[in-house]
Amino acid sequence: MRLGLVSHKAFEETHIPEVTRPYMEAFEHPDRIKFTREYLRNSGLLGNQNLKIFECKPAARVDIVRVHSPYLFDVVGELSRLGYGEVGASSFVVKDTFKAACLSAGGAISAVEEVNKGSVETAFALIRPPGHHAGIGHSEGMCYFNNCAISVRWLQEKKNVKRILILDLDAHACDGTSQIFYTDPTVLVLSFHEYGMEAIERGWLEEIGSGEGEGYNINVPLPLGTWGNAYLWSFENIFPEVIRSFKPEMVVVSFGFDTHYSDPVGNMNLQAEDYAKLTRMILQLGKEVCQGRVAFILEGGYSLIALPLSIAAVISTILDSEIKYFDKIREPEKIPKIVRNVTEEIQNIKKQYL
């Protein structure tokens, strides 16, 4: 399968938080992209004959304000010019944050564009900062502009792609993405995420969309510490029915790797091989439903040891190339009752709306 890898050298050099407070910003660092690129090169994946590399360009203002308020666009830009400030919870701005955020959004657009026009069969946007917590008028959680949402609206506006499925596999609920599409029946948002750590959380089962969009926002909140086999069991019992019922023209995957057991931010217990299995299922169902039109957009993932291997697991699966997994650990065989209960409730929601 031909894969387009979309990235830019600037992701390895820009948007470096200069303060240690709040602590999470320090994890969203250029080394995420630098170390991943080095691992892909050393593993031979960058030299694969079916891999095509694309250099992205910044998203234009018109593309960003198609999703976000002009106020948010201007605030991120102005704080970056000042060189200092916090634009939202755990979203600190330095002098080149605006440049990186626009380039990241542009990378997501490039990924869906190359898939849409058929130059590659699927694409992976190796970009930062992430985007899925950014809502219409706010930045949050190390996210400034919502890369995935911007690319989806670009597809709908510029390429007349009418029905799109956003599959979010980050450790945290894609609250920004859900807000943006909450009343929109043309975009189905399906999010698998951890649940149960914070007093006030978003991503409840009851958050199903509203108005014309009712039933088109599906949250799968899984307990902290969920292992890969339970995560995959839930995925296998939900995703196939959702994609077959909705029949999207393209699938855009917000892929976060902070679900890895070694991640300093997430609280799940997935391993790199689990990401390969997820990728295989997504590609198979994408081929069945939407002619294989799938684009992967990088979200979280902050372990500098696990992230390169995890992304390599996805890319090697797409390219049908073997790599060695060095992070294997034993996991319990039993699927927790709470995972089964959540999955059953989601199936009831699907029956009602899809």
How would you describe this structure to a colleague?
The protein has 354 residues and is an alpha/beta fold. It has a single domain, classed as 3-Layer(aba) Sandwich (Arginase, Chain A). The chain is built from ten helices and ten strands. It has helices at residues 31-42, 61-64, 70-82, 97-117, 147-158, 175-180, 228-246, 272-290, 306-319, 337-353, and strands spanning 3-7, 51-55, 84-88, 91-94, 122-125, 164-168, 187-195, 217-223, 250-255, 294-298. Strand 9 (250-255), helix 8 and strand 10 (294-298) form a beta-alpha-beta unit. The longest helix is centred in the first third of the chain and has 21 residues, at 97-117.
Order of helices and strands: EHEHHEEHEHEHEEHEHEHH
Relative strand content: 15-25%
Specify the CATH architecture: 3-Layer(aba) Sandwich
Number of strands: 10
What structural class do you assign from the helix and strand content? Answer: alpha/beta
Provide the CATH superfamily: Histone deacetylase domain
Indicate the overall shape: globular
Helix content: 25-40%
Rg on CA atoms, Å: 18 Å
Number of contiguous helices? 10
Flag low-confidence runs: none
Quick structural overview:
By secondary structure, the protein is α/β, with parallel strands linked by helices. About 40% of the residues lie in helices and about 15% in strands. It has one domain: Histone deacetylase domain (Arginase, Chain A, 3-Layer(aba) Sandwich).
